[in-house]
Amino acid sequence: MGMRAFQAPGRFWRGNLHTHSDRSDGGLSPEAVCAHYRDAGYDFLCLSDHFLSRFDFPVTDTRPFRSTGFTTLLGAELHADATSHGELWHILAAGLPEDFEATGKAEDGLALAKRAREAGAFVGIAHPQWSGLTIEDGRAMAAHAHSVEIYNYTCDLETARADGTYLLDELLNEGYALSAFASDDTHFKYEEGLAAWVMVKAAENTPEALLEALKAGLFYSSQGPVIEGFSIADGEVLVECSPAVNVALVGRGAKSENQWGRDLTRVRLSSERFEGDWFRLIVADAAGRLAWSNPVRLD
Known about the structure:
Blueprint: H1 4-7, E1 11-16, H2 30-39, E2 44-47, E3 50-51, E4 71-78, E5 91-94, H3 109-118, E6 122-125, H4 128-131, H5 135-142, E7 147-152, H6 153-159, H7 165-173, E8 179-183, E9 197-202, H8 207-215, E10 219-222, E11 227-233, E12 236-251, E13 256-270, E14 278-284, E15 290-292, E16 296-297
Parallel strand pairs: 1-2, 2-4, 3-4, 6-7, 7-8
Antiparallel strand pairs: 1-9, 4-5, 5-6, 9-10, 10-15, 11-12, 12-13, 12-14, 14-15, 14-16
Helix pairs in contact: 5-7
């Protein structure tokens, strides 16, 4: 999954999968949110308003705000009972049909995620650290999800609970095939986002092509660093990237390989200790910003 994005045909498109407008609890209109990302040079956006009764279960229609060079995925942040803490699930669903039916009164979070996936959506477990999700929560939802939110900018600002790696890695240890997406989760009340995104490899910048690539894991996530190449041959992983100070592979338990330096742009790391298992790539720049690959399995 993690390396195929760099061998697949097409080019990388920059997008944000998780953000909110005044259709739910955001501070800007859908049109203004789309303009914000379009003007910042993003190629696409999924506006994921909260799918709750008090907001009339919105799948916010952003199709009127598509333009040459900028497109949108219809989606929502879905909610239903109950996590292990007795709280609502937060489930990112990008690529929902416009007429996705309201959450049923007896529909729990697992059933809702399953229904979204069957409707064609890319389904992500949102901000697991912010929600305090347990491994039991993760196991239950992993059967219906494509991905785990590895970093959430607004959760970082508000609570310093932005990380999804702990849940992702535990699920990878148990054999689940999940990707990792980063997002802004911007509400435009005091934050403007533009801090974390996905780079999706597709032949064209259309909702259909982007959604297919997301489901296939043909993307990486970033706060700034660019991963230009990621491949493996003869027991070595080759990473090509924008100038970095650390390039690391991490896997099960404490398994890792890394190289520190200044302005690293081409790094070779041994894959030997990851044979028969999984690893992920992390690239860090001098400002402390990270980029994350999707997991790679060598089994």
